[in-house]
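Human: I would love a firmer grasp of how sequence relates to backbone shape in proteins. Take your time, and here it is.
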Amino acid sequence: MRKSSSEQEVRLTVRAYNSLSEIFLVNSRFEKIAAAVGQLETWIPPGLYKARFRIGQTQVDQLIEVHPGAEELEIKGLPVNFNSPIPFPGTDTNRDVHRQAAEKFSRVAAEKKGEGSWLFLFLRETAVAGAAPWTGVTLHDLDGALVAEPGQGICDQENGYFALHIELDPGTYRLRVEEEPTEFYEIFVRTVAGWQTQIFALSEAAWLPDVQARRAALPSASLLMTEAGEGFDSGNAMTRQVELLRLALLHGRQVVTEALVSDLLEEERPNPVQIILIAHALSGQGKLDAALRKVLLKKFPAEFGEHPDIQALTLDQSAEVRPAFPAPPMFRSSWDRIVQAVEQRKAIVPPGSVAAQLDDGVIKTALWLVHRPDSLEI
């Protein structure tokens, strides 16, 4: 145990309610004196302090009084009720009816449109009564052919949610939101053999100023993956951690610690989305982190070998074969890596492929690769 530099100092331990919550310690002069993720340990003199706990852009403050004569003080942090498209208990956007519906319909028999992989789409409204969050939403294959539309799912306007569970051939699909005729945007969703890809989104006001409607907010959607048959489990600790990693990456928060990576490497079968998010968070951080990413990517099951987001994360590693990207990735940062690699002749985007047609239609303000194909023939 480290000795204090002064007989008056007290050993303070602050444990966040969640292991991926950022902690900031501020003294009575509003000076930040320490920061950590998950748990903070420091020595401080008696006095009044404030601990700030942050997840994404949501934060909560907790006052701490350190009395003279105390040897040590342990503080358990307050929970941060963050916002999430996923209906987790203890979040400001949770609705029990949404949580129960997501758990139920992610496990019911899927409509069969292919074989071997599954997609569960759950859209919900938490702000406006009577809204229809499924309005204008369609699912297409990579070539643009319609695969599913709202009438094929559960549309519950009274409770404000839409659920669609569908079995598909493994591959990349286009999830679109039409704001008005011929005006729409899309994200790309990858399904993997033996896995269920889960997309959650809240409603938002339409992007176009003259459209008085609510639409699914795909740029801020959440992504989960579970093995086939498991469905959505709102109480799963790993699932919540994946969402907290997404929020951190979305808002540029550094929450990936050596302990987190070490724990992940010890997992026999870690969550694929967790690996992708951590690898993206480590991207561009230097040689050490490149080595860590290389080890992390070896944890993926074999069925993820052609996943474009995983291939994109390997582009800075020496390889004899230039990876090809006929299908776009899900993450915008993956797309940026692909574009850079193509310029350096380290990757191939086949002429005429969907990836080759994205060009200037990519919206650069989202975590996901959001595309507005105004000039694309569909």
